[in-house]
Design goal:
Layout: E1 3-5, E2 10-12, H1 27-44, E3 58-67, E4 72-84, E5 90-96, E6 102-110, E7 112-123, E8 126-154, E9 157-170, E10 173-178, H2 186-198, H3 200-206, H4 208-227, H5 232-235, H6 242-247
Antiparallel strand pairs: 1-2, 3-4, 4-7, 5-6, 6-8, 7-8, 8-9, 8-10
Length: about 250
């Protein structure tokens, strides 16, 4: 359980969270375990963590992609997106840089995005024009993300202000479905979906900007909610205050 009581500004260290030290030679191993514990707890749900009761499922209102290079020329948007799979996150490595940004590598057995799409353009040699329901299901993902932060103080604790998150990833499979392509011409719709699934490797490269943007939006929103509520010095006990940094 996580306790964050705005009325008396009382924040208590959760029992499930392992606290690490910058001065510890085993900091990398410790912070990897700590972040794994955070993902495990988020999968179950953290009581008292406002705005992020669970990470499975998560919802995103809208994702907008405009791309005009390479094998993809697409003006696309996804709306009412439901994302599942993040509760199965395996943290491979996490470390804190000298500027208090982070590098994190995780493995995700399967992620599923469901929602409504609106797309005009082409993927590979196929012109695509449609709107309707869709789902995308990448599997065996290896995700590396780079998180930028700034430190600030609140209620006697040092907190992380997460300012950006950039993602690189690979996947070992992709399944997808887009309904109502070609204004509902079923023969074209079915043959196109079959082609896209049979050629998932080049399609996955073509769709990387959409999937990357989705993952970045998920992680940034998730981390901002977490680290504005759980102090950074609960994760790293000897994290300096901004005042200590400016004095050096």
């Amino acid at each position: 359980m996580f306790t964050n009581t705005a009325k008396n500004n009382k924040t208590e260290l959760p029992e499930w969270l392992e606290t690490c030290k910058l001065s510890d030679p085993e900091l990398r191993a410790c912070s990897t375990r700590s972040v794994q514990g955070l993902f495990d707890q988020l999968g179950k749900g953290i009581k008292g963590l406002a705005g992020l009761e669970t990470i499975d499922p998560m919802r995103i209102d809208r994702i907008r992609i405009l791309q005009g290079e390479g094998p993809v020329s697409v003006n696309a948007s996804l709306s009412n997106v439901k994302v599942t799979g993040f509760s199965k996150t395996e943290v491979v490595e996490n470390y804190v840089n000298k500027d208090y940004s982070w590098f994190t590598q995780v493995k995700l057995p399967k992620m599923r995005l469901e929602g409504h799409y609106h797309m005009m353009g082409r993927i590979l040699v196929i012109p695509l024009n449609g709107r309707g329901k869709c789902w995308f299901e990448p599997s065996n993902m290896d995700i590396k993300f780079y998180t930028k932060t700034k430190l600030y103080t609140k209620h006697g604790h040092t907190f992380y202000n997460v300012t950006s998150c950039k993602v690189q990833f690979t996947m070992e499979g992709l399944k997808l479905r887009m309904d109502n392509l070609f204004e509902g011409v079923k023969v074209l719709e079915e043959s196109t979906n079959v082609y896209l699934n049979e050629n998932w490797r080049p399609v996955s490269e073509a769709l990387k900007p959409i999937i990357s943007k989705t993952i970045e939006d998920i992680l940034l929103d998730m981390m901002q909610k977490i680290f504005h509520q759980i102090p950074g010095n609960f994760f790293i006990s000897d994290l300096p205050t901004p005042e200590q940094l400016s004095a050096n």
